[in-house]
Design brief:
With 169 residues, this protein is an all-alpha fold. The protein has 2 helices and no strands. It starts with a helix and ends with a helix.
Length: 169
């Protein structure tokens, strides 16, 4: 009877060690999941910021397009109304310079919008990757929790069996 109690105690100690190891693994995975969740939130914030920058760049581009259209109209009026005067030549040159500057601003705004869109796409991919990793970790956690529950049930059964065996003797 003493040998079976020693074997039972050894089995219980082994099961306790297994439960402690699985609990430690679960805690580690939970910390990793928490870190991944924080990273996802940070990336979502960055995506929102990049979207805002993209919207701002698009607004600037629209304003530049309106400005270009306005300046083109002014240029045409200057050509028609004051072709023969020296002063109209100066105004024409100024309007042309403004159109070129506006085009440069428009091109810059387009590049900024493209850069923002690329950054947003990359951020979305990172968010997607992190969400997939989170889901994978969640499945691992659920699996470890199920394994922990199974081992706890085995321990409980072993304890109940040992108690029953002890009660019969």
């Amino acid at each position: 009877m003493n040998d079976s109690a020693t074997v039972s105690n050894t089995a219980q100690e082994k099961l306790k060690q297994d439960v402690a190891a699985v609990t430690s693994q679960r805690d580690t995975l939970q910390k990793q999941l928490d870190a991944a969740t924080a990273t996802v939130k940070s990336l979502q914030s960055e995506v929102a910021q990049l979207r805002g920058q993209g919207d701002t760049a698009a607004s600037k581009q629209k304003a530049s397009d309106v400005e270009v259209a306005r300046l083109r109209g002014e240029l045409e009026l200057a050509k028609k109304a004051q072709l023969d005067s020296e002063q109209s030549g100066v105004r024409l040159k100024a309007a042309e310079d403004a159109v070129m500057a506006s085009r440069a601003k428009s091109a810059e705004a387009e590049r900024a919008a493209a850069t923002a869109a690329d950054a947003a796409t990359k951020a979305k991919q990172q968010v997607s990757d992190l969400l997939a990793e989170k889901a994978s970790m969640q499945l691992k956690i659920e699996s470890l929790n199920a394994e922990l529950a199974r081992k706890a049930a085995v321990i409980d059964d072993a304890i109940a069996a040992a108690a029953a065996a002890k009660g019969k003797k």
